[in-house]
Amino acid sequence: MVHIPDDADFNSFREQCESPDGWQCQYNKGGVTVWSQEQDSGRAVKKLKMRIICKDVPAEVLYDVLHDTSYRKKWDTNMIDTYDIGRLTVNADVGYYSWKCPSPLKNRDFVTLRSWLPLGNDYMIINYSVKHPKHPPRKDFVRAVSLQTGYLIKSNGDNSCILYYLTQVDPKGCIQAVPYLRTPDLQTTPSYKRTSGIW
């Protein structure tokens, strides 16, 4: 059985995005801020959070861009493949996503349960990894695990918004020898910036 996120899960995710408690700022420049949060010794995978001020982009447009898996190839240059596996409810589905890792690392993939919630002028999309009998790990990828990943999009006037991206991912495999992956979510910043030419 899988757990489909409910109101409590969305409220918890939103609180993590908006709360400064326990977060250490790692980067702050040009409207982009990145924080990290160390976990207790029982869970070594740290959380990362990013906030981007998106000018001239309405919240509903950004939500549509991030929510549309078929459109993702237009802006996500690290993506190899993505597709929907099946719909669970009116606001939850299971999907597949794979992406390129820098050499010499093996490329990674996910199978995740994704759920979304529009709240007036604000929007949330969250996911976590699940197992699917028809989509087992593949030999040509390392199956990574999303413990929690998602977006909070907050309207900031008629034609701008604030994007929060929060993630806690175990990439699996061996990555200790590659410093480039120490803060992997910094790599996503150019991708989000590039989308401004599409909106």
Question: What this model shows, in words?
Answer:
- The protein is mainly beta and 199 residues long.
- It has one domain (28-191): Alpha-D-Glucose-1,6-Bisphosphate, Chain A, domain 4 (2-Layer Sandwich), CATH 3.30.530.20.
- It has three helices and ten strands, in the order αβββαβββββββα.
- It has helices at residues 7-18, 59-67, 188-194, and strands at 24-29, 32-37, 47-54, 79-89, 92-99, 108-119, 122-129, 142-143, 145-155, 161-170.
- Strands 1, 2, 3, 4, 5, 6, 7, 8, 9 and 10 form a ten-stranded mixed beta sheet that branches.
- A hairpin with a 5-residue loop joins strand 9 (145-155) and strand 10.
- The longest helix has 12 residues, at 7-18.
- The model is unreliable at 177-192 and 194-199 (pLDDT under 50).
Highlighted features:
START_lipid_transfer; disordered C terminus; Alpha-D-Glucose-1,6-Bisphosphate, Chain A, domain 4; ten-stranded mixed β-sheet; cytoplasm; mainly beta; 14% helix; 199 residues
List the helices and strands and how they pair.
Blueprint: H1 7-18, E1 24-29, E2 32-37, E3 47-54, H2 59-67, E4 79-89, E5 92-99, E6 108-119, E7 122-129, E8 142-143, E9 145-155, E10 161-170, H3 188-194
Parallel strand pairs: 6-8
Antiparallel strand pairs: 1-2, 2-3, 3-10, 4-5, 5-6, 6-7, 7-9, 9-10
GO molecular function: lipid binding
Subcellular location: Cell projection, Cilium, Flagellum; Cytoplasm; Membrane
Main location: other
